[in-house]
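Lab meeting notes turned into a lecture example. A postdoc, R.K., suggested we walk through two folding results consecutively so the class can see how the record format repeats. The first protein's sequence and structure tokens come next.
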Amino acid sequence: MADLTALQNWVGEFQPGQLPAAGLQLVPVTGDAGFRSYFRSNTQPPFIAALAPPDQENNPAFVNIAIAMARGGVHVPKIFAVNYEQGFLLQEDLGATLFLDVLSAENQAQLYDRAEAALLQIQALPSDSTLFPHYGSELLRCELELFTEWFVSGLLDVQLDTWARDLLDDFFAVLLSSAGEQPQVVVHRDFHSRNLLLLGDGGVGVIDFQDAVHGPISYDLVSLLRDCYIRWPQTVVEQRVEGFRCKLLDQSAVQGQVVTLPDSATFLRWFDLMGLQRHLKVLGIFSRLSLRDGKARYLDDLPLVLRYVLEVAQKYPEADDFYRWFIERLEPKIIEQSWYQPWQSAGERL
């Protein structure tokens, strides 16, 4: 609690709001999957204070990326003060209305239009390599190994033999090849309904962007439309994928840019295979959050992620061997898990 006391004293020096008679108070706010802790002040207006351990969080990257995104028109929290040595940040409060809390069949088209407008702004940012590391085959491959280490071996206690290792290596190569074919843009890397806020003016607030990179153009789109926390019918997803492809073409025409995009079927394949990479990684991350960090609640989200993986794997011949191995070797172990529910119906809303 010493860090929290120090944070409160520091916020008292720098907060630009009006203090109530009772004095400054910081109320915990639900944080992200990292090591940051967030607190809302009782000032007018309220502000968000963050306790971000500098040995575990890259606070300079957070601040610099926030500045770059704000310059590009993306509504990220303004940074009012920062203490890098102690890992303290004081930033704008964008409210508490997450997209996940308000999305419905009736408003999803409108809200996703707004989210995609913000995504286009992110993708149009200059690709400064000092801010946005290259999201290429090496990093993408490392992320896929989270699946084997934490989900397959860690959570399911399945050990890979030589045949399975070779199978996965070949399958991962297909996913990495597809990612490498795509135009490379700035990628938020976790662009979904828990990191998007509906603002009072109808705008979109974007948070949790400190791991942004320069990588495949379909990555953030699949994070948004095949969200690990909410599912939409496949027809809706595919319509939006094609709609976004058209928006990219329209934007490049207006800005006079030369953007090489493929036909609809190829773009959808990019999207699908990028989703396989992301969702295999997420299976590993959610398992690690439970096994290493004690955040077992993330296991409840695994069935929907499994559904995304297995539905897409059934679409493409190059994923046949992976799909069969998954069903024959992993599914029997998955069924034994306390968090299990049939993946075929995961994410369905009553």
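The second example is placed directly after the first for contrast:
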Amino acid sequence: MELGYFLELGINGALAGLMYSLVAMGIVLIYKSSSVPNLAQGALTMVGAYVVLGFAQGAGLSMWLAIPLAMLTMCALGVAIERVALRRLAGRPIVMILMMTLGLDIFLRAGTMAISGGTARPMRIGISDEPMFLGPLLLNRAYVVGAAVALFLFVCFVLFFRTRRGAVLRAISDDYMASWSVGISVERGVALSWALSSMVATAAGVLWGSIQGVDQSLSLLLIKGITVAVLGGMDSLGGAILAGIGLGAFEALASGVLDPMLGGGSRDLVVALVLIVTIMVRPHGLFGRHDIERL
């Protein structure tokens, strides 16, 4: 195979990996501010895309008005999830909260399919299908736009966590009881993290929906998002970006080699292997904080 082919695969894979990072950032935002591993991020991504379609096709709004309205709606949904489902679990064992997010994922997927049906629906957001050229290399224009959005949101969240409110969220993540004792509203902080995560999920749903259509398969982006978050470190936004680039490029290159031999379908295998090896070898990720408890 030619070098240009591998360069093209690697660059497009890295751009797709940055779009995986959008899902991972939603997971990291909640974990970074509340130490809760959110297994419902894939379902939130799917719901966000359907809400955008609801405003655009159901209400007849332009796509560029439908997207911010959908983000506000999803922020409200994130706050409602914290208020109704998670607030009463504060201070409970983490496994209970984990199971709650898993149940939430199933509920959101089933509820959305019951309302909207299972037929894939196209989403047009104005990105041309024409490829971009980087010298002799062809780049997927939608991947380029998605990567730019991911980097922009990353910068916004890095700046946010340097503010007073961001410091409050980090304090909540470190110790719920200590935060309560100094007058921090843990409930509001956790609700804010869910609102921000739901907003990021909407951005991911719109971008991926414009590429592959809007249906239940969008919820499967959770697998890629979890892998990126674990590889980069569950509490590291920068790790999510770098791990997304690395995973996307490795997935594309490995599938380029393996697919001709296996007949296709190697992408998910590669991602699963990366997740398993990361958990076995470096469970706190490449850039995550390694907490050591001394007894």
